[in-house]
Amino acid sequence: MKRILAAVLVAVTFPALASAKAQRVEKLDNRIEAAHAVLHELMATPDKGIPFDIASHATCVIVIPAYKKGAFVVGAQYGQGVATCRTGHGWSAPVFVQIAGASFGFQAGGQSTDLVLVGVNHKSADDILREKVKLGGDIAASAGPVGRNSQASTSILANAEFLTYSRSRGLFAGVDLTGDELNQNQDDTRAYYGADIPYQKILSGAVPVKPSSQHFVRTVSELFRIGRARQ
Q1: Is residue 6 part of a domain?
Q2: Which among 59, 62, 76, 218 could disulfide-bond with 117, CB atoms 3.0 to 4.6 Å apart, if both were Cys?
């Protein structure tokens, strides 16, 4: 009898666990797709997008897409997204990050906000690998200039690790995220890759880009390529 009960328990539990894992991975795929959509729309905004000059200096790109159905917790001002960094042979597979603070979230009338953070020096990748960092404190961050032909001042590029942008109602603008905290989402990264792979390994380009994130990585690469070509 005990053997029969054990067999029944295994037969019920394993499919349930497999289903829960599949649902979580699908949720992460959807987050990457949302990040891709933000970048795609950014590239289609000729006058109010991130300048080519900034894109050409990009070393890391973080996208926090807004989810209107519960993925954004309004009271806590909390968002989740993905990050990729430039390597010697292209852009890395994405890792998952989360950000919390009072500088973003739902705007008047219920309009949600997308965030894009562009790392512009070699320290950017190292700093987003810390357990938790404060923008404007642990990481030097500044509101980025807007407009395709705008150029960041030499001082901004020299002193800021990340230039920060928000998008509301289809328009991108520089945003001050000072005080907001950015950290790794190890659980989501582990769930997506099926193993506890260190962030350093993923962002260094040592992990292959999964099919579900290839379009996101290609779009980041294209943004960088266009920026370089316009310089």
Answers
A1: no
A2: 62
Output the 3-class SS for the chain. CHHHHHHHHHHHHHHHHHHHHHHHHHHHHHHHHHHHHHHHHHHCCCCCCCCHHHHHCCCEEEEECCCCCCCCECCCCEEEEEEEEEECCEECCCEEEEEECCCCCCCHHHCCCEEEEEECCCHHHHHHCCCEEEECCCECEEECCCCCCCCCCHHHHHHCCEEEEEEECCEEEECCCCCCEEEECHHHHHHHHCCCCCHHHHHCCCCCCCHHHHHHHHHHHHHHHHHHHCC
Per-residue pLDDT of 38-51, as tens digits, reads: 888 877 766 667 77
Residue-wise pLDDT for 69-104, tens only, equals 334 444 445 689 999 999 989 999 999 998 877 555
User: What is this structure's pTM?
Assistant: 0.79
Give CA–CA dist 100/110, Å, rounded: 19
Q: Which of 170, 171, 197 is nearest to 184 (CA)?
A: 197
- Calpha distance 46→228 (Å, rounded): 16
Structural domain boundaries, residue 133:
17-229
Cα–Cα distance measured from residue 6 to residue 89, given in angstroms and rounded to the nearest whole number: 50
> Are 168 and 48 in contact, with CB atoms under 8 Å apart?
no
Does residue 105 lie in a domain region?
Answer: yes
